[in-house]
Amino acid sequence: MFRWMVLIIIVGVVGCNQTNQELVKDYHNDGMQLFKMGRYSDAQESFQAAQQLQPADPGIYYNLGQTYDYLRRPYDAEKCYKECIVRSPNHAGARHALTVLLMNQNRQDEAVKGIEDWLAKNPNCAAAYAEDGWIWKTTGDMPRAQSRYQQALSLDPSDTRTLVELAFVYEKLNRPDRSLVLYQRALEINPHQLAVKKDLERLRSSGTPLPHPD
Q: Which tens digit of pLDDT belongs to each residue from 104-152?
């Protein structure tokens, strides 16, 4: 409560010298720093201060939802993710966070329907196919996950998350040769993926060959 009062006082004091946009940026950056430090309650208050000034910003709803997730407040997190999606239907981060939340609560039917609706409204959105692939990968339906990830890559061949997810699926389907190529592609796009580097080295050290023709 004290921190919130301090934030309000600061708005009143500096409001004459800063635009709302600058204040939103300051509060948002403050929230991000606090979040990274693990100070989730303080981060929540900073994001809420930004939200008061800019209530239509989908990114603030997403970050606030992430904070509620870490505070183990799933009801509030769900509300924030949904508000983010209303304002930005293709916000992949909010879509994935909401899907994870629903799956963790054994609400798979709701998760599936949410992604089906997204695909129906945005049939050319690569992230929607990737999210559907994630659901089926999570439930163990690897062939279906493979199909969805391939559809996603046909629309966005450089999405590293999808490349890595599909590589994982191919490993489960006993096609490590294809996984190796996908890990390589993901690292060519973004070399700063330590976990992917480890997976690639693991396959190489086990003697995984390049893909063979089907």
A: 999 999 999 999 999 999 999 999 999 999 999 999 999 999 999 999 9
Sign of the Cα torsion 185, 186, 188, 193 reads negative
Say how many C-beta atoms besides its own lie within 10 A of residue 162's C-beta. 27
Residues 165, 150, 78, 66: is their CA dihedral positive or negative? positive
Rounded Cα gap, residues 16 and 7, in angstroms: 15
Residue 153 to residue 132: CA distance in whole angstroms: 13
- Exposed e or buried b for every residue in 100-118, given b needs 16+ CB within 10 A? bbbbeeeeeeebbebbeeb
How many other C-beta atoms lie within 10 A of the C-beta of residue 72?
8
Q: What domains are there in the chain, each with its CATH number? A: 19-106 (1.25.40.10), 123-213 (1.25.40.10)
Q: Taking the alpha carbons of 178, 204, 173, 133 in that order, is the dihedral positive or negative? A: negative
Structure tokens at 46: 């900073």
The pTM score is 0.85
